[in-house]
Input
Amino acid sequence: MGLKSIGIDLFKSVINESKENPDLLDSYSLNQFKSKENLLHHISKLELINPHIVILGSWYGSILIPALVDQAEHITCIDIDDRVIAIAKNRLLKKYKNIDFICSDVFDSKRKSRIKNSNLVINTSCEHMSNMSELPALYKSNAYFAFQSNNMYDIPTHMNCVASIDEFYSQLPDNATVIVEDEIEDDRGIRYTLIGKLCAE
Output
């Protein structure tokens, strides 16, 4: 799993779409590539075979999806923003057939089955939502997880940042065992990565 599958066609689509949706370029920035590459490096060591992946707070999916799609049996992208879901589904990533795009709050009980039955739950947007310890589906799951948050408190849409990796640990569900922790700096602060395994209660 890596970034080599992110091709020129997607790059052209991102540039074209960003004329009307400037925040799309933010999803494709150097900082985003740096943090996603770090995450993917660690995920690759899990040796998952044809996993079912759920991405919580998937945003445009412009980096993670092309990097994961060829190795995954299925990917479910969940984001509360119907605009980004529509752009990802209908324009940026429409060529991929093994992806579902769902516009929803990830904490909606209707999402429980997808999350519970996945092999890998990814959330690189933990700072945008409540603690993962508050997501009931994770307590019924035996999936691996890969979560990222950061200490970038000055970004208006960040409502749940953490000041340290230890604080990030405190946001995990009780049935989570961490096997990888990492930190990576970008020009706005520090991103924290926790990867591990859930054990269904």
